[in-house]
Amino acid sequence: VFGLLVARAIGTKSFVVKLLFLLTIGISKIGGLLNSCNGLTTTALQFGIPILLLVYYAGDIGDNAFHMVGLVTEPVLQGLGIKHIVMRDPAKVKQDIAGAVTLANSSKRPVALLLTRAVL
Amino acid sequence: MKRFECLQAIAPLITDELFVCTAGGATAEWNAVRPSDGNIQVKTLGLCSSIGLGLAIALPRRKVFVFDGDGALWMNLGSLATIGLHQPKNLIHICWDNHQYESSGGEPTAATADNLDFAGVARSAGIKSSRTAITIEELEESVSHALSHDGPHFICARIEAGRAEAPPLRYDELENKYRFIRYIEETEGISILRIAKPASYLLK
Q1: In 3D, which of B49, B41, B66, B29 has the Cα closest to residue B166?
Q2: What is the average pLDDT across B61-69?
Q3: Residues of A in contact with B79 (CB under 8 A)
């Protein structure tokens, strides 16, 4: 998954494409996540669809180009009511993913993993 | 041609196909013409084609119809490229083109300029079976062709503005979702919704 993530920073719509899978996995950079707010609200949240959002955390501490999206990312997720984990510790990657999958399935909501450079 | 007449004309061609219906007038009209748990409503303008693509990929042996609108498709035109990329053989995408955002008061869409050829865009995006239907006969023929040949298929149906008298939907989005998924589970013989054993059961 991480190789795929690095290779393909997919944008807006990819995450809702596989609706019927038990758990859909969405991969994007923060720009894709922000573009997806309407779909997340009126499809994922309104219909109650579990999605694991794997999002490259652009604008994180140390980023020299996208500080503005980094500033709004976590407040936007909070505003949408989407729980998230900022992944900074490579040793905790498996545990974070497993926890997010469990929560997404049990709550029937999206859960976001914000991937920093440290875990990529 | 009127949308409701079109829907009535193609209904006899339909058996157990799944329908993903746009956030627009086509949804209530289709549910009036062909009530079924195989119809799912969409609340995000433009996302019906993406959701239909996902269904088509997940259920490759089941034909999936997408009922789109020109305003909705314009909002998510990129989905044509994603469909062109994945080439789902079982996807039939119909755009009901009335040149306006009818649900929100009839404001003109980009299609109003008549410079926008949706079927041409779809073809250029890799959807080779791409047509425009102006008469009901052309539409019937296009749908028959789509049902009997591998896709993906795109049909732009040029319709008059105006809604038919159709009753409101019987189910809200959550009930519609659960019924739709159960319908797929039953007709496909698969299990989609599973309830995990409570974690407390796993503790010693």
Answers
A1: B29
A2: 96
A3: 13
